[in-house]
Amino acid sequence: MITTHDAEDLIHPESLRLINWYSPAYDMVQVPVLPLPSGLGRFTHGLYCDEFGEYQCKDIPVRKRLGGFLPSNGVGTGFGRVALERLAATRQGRIFDPECLTEDYQNGFQLHAMGHTQIFVPLRFGPDGPVATREYFPQRLGAAIRQRSRWVTGIALQGWQKNGWRAPWPQVYWFWRDRKGLVGNLLTPIANAIFLYGIARYLWFSKVDEAWPGSQVSYWVTRFCVATLWISVFQAAVRTRCCARIYGWRFAAAVPLRMLWGNLVNSAATVTALWQFWSAHRKHSVPAWQKTEHVYPGQVAAVERRPRLGEVLVRMRCVSMSDLEGALLSCPQGLRIGEHLISSKRLSEEHLYQALSSQAGIPLGAPDPKEVHRLATRVLPAEAARRWKVMPYRVAVGQLHVLTPNVPSEQLTRDLAAYSDLEIRFRLVRPREFEAMATEYLPHASSTAARMKYGSVA
User: Fold this and answer.
1) One digit per residue, pLDDT tens: the chain, 458 residues?
2) Which H or E run includes 194?
3) What is the rounded distance in angstroms from the CA atom of residue 92 to the CA atom of residue 9?
4) Residue 423 phi, psi dihedral angles, 5° rounding
5) Is position 89 within any domain?
6) 256 falls within a domain
7) Which of 77, 88, 110, 86 is nearest to 3 (CA)?
8) Segment (H or E) for 273
9) How far is 1 from 22, CA to CA, in rounded Å?
10) Sign of the C-alpha dihedral, residues 305, 8, 73, 88?
């Protein structure tokens, strides 16, 4: 099997086992893909949570049950090597079509057309949350439109161009499902406007003057609008239920509002895709790849489960299993295992921080001096920076980069968010590196550095 992932994916410990389990019977195994949870204020990223929640809980399972081909999600997908070699043989040795902007979707269809078996692993929940590949999706409007325009171009426009409608009739239905957004997405802003007008008219104009011009709407048009409204209410209820199953009811309560926002985002993405596709067609070229904004999860709280430090140390061969077991038995109460291993000469500080960096998923090491901006170090009050043992050093692309000798906790992230609306990105440094940076950049750091304690963490 060959499994595809993005560099920023958080791979669930069970996902590879599931792909391995299903691989003898299936040539393509798709593990669920879900966005990491985000706050209610991140409307654009929340839209991805809603859509992927409904997609993985309802759409894909129903699609597979009804015999439709399985479009790969691009990540969390296991392919049989023999199937990929057969696919490559049709493209002069290329596994992926380099001209297609959604090569995962195209591969899913072609493997099905070639008779290869496919399965979607049903979404299941363990003690650590859903068994799925997790990642952050674009959190800003421009980045979301750029990514979704690529999806529309690749799935709807290039899919139509490459595959046409030549397929068995059950697959033609799924082609229609995948391409109907070319029209539907353009009409949804108009539908939103009519919906808001109808609410305003019902709440105000009908009370002011029943004879207000335009208030007498055709009987059948009224009934049609009422019917479509109830269909929309039912669809919103289904999406809310799917979202609540994964992210909780508090987050899911905002699904109807995010649906209105999603209509505008998808409409803008469709207009962008049509323009880019037409421009490329006019120039006799292929549409340009629009790079997606990737966010690497740097907060420990974002991961439902992370391996224990001891597991990471053994996996990295920094300590042996026998040394770890002995240290766990002899570790004094109140002393962390990393500190105990260092004090007992079984582990070096260098190896400890390499393991902490791997465990938390944040980069390690002092930044290049060229990356440190003195103005950025003043974002936090010096007293707070010393108390929390953090130091901002750079502001870039809406992100505040922060140094710390400790693995950041959820509480620390919330405390820092009170001082800045920027997304917090942590970088782990060793205690001596942090002390040197604080002495150089924090106000009056030199007079208090002797009183500061920078202990190792675990």
Assistant:
1) 999 998 888 888 888 889 999 999 999 999 999 998 887 888 899 999 999 999 999 999 999 999 899 998 889 999 999 999 999 999 889 998 888 999 999 999 999 999 999 999 999 887 667 899 998 898 889 989 999 999 999 999 999 999 999 888 888 999 999 999 999 999 999 988 888 887 887 777 655 445 445 545 566 777 788 888 899 999 999 999 999 999 999 999 999 999 999 999 999 999 999 999 999 989 888 888 777 766 666 543 444 456 788 888 888 888 888 888 888 888 888 788 888 888 888 888 888 888 888 888 788 888 888 888 888 888 888 788 888 888 888 887 677 888 888 888 878 888 887 787 777 888 888 888 888 888 888 776 444 444 444 444 44
2) helix 181-200
3) 30
4) -70, 130
5) yes
6) no
7) 77
8) helix 255-282
9) 11
10) negative
* CATH classification at residue 117: 3.90.550.10
Helix (H, G, I), strand (E, B) or coil at 296: coil
385 lies in which domain range?
A: 300-451
Q: CB under 8 Å to 8, separation ≥6 — which residues? A: 135, 136, 294, 295, 296, 297
Residues with Cβ within 8 Å of residue 201, at least 6 apart in sequence: 215
Token output for 221: 């048009």
By three-state DSSP, how is residue 180 classified?
coil
- H-assigned helices in 39-140: 43-54, 60-65, 81-89, 103-113
Q: Tokens 């009050």 correspond to what residue?
A: 381
DSSP-assigned letter for residue 10: B
Structure token pair of residue 251: 């987050």
| Residue finishing a domain among 85, 106, 137 | 137
Give which of 76, 2, 71 is closest to 35, Cα–Cα: 76
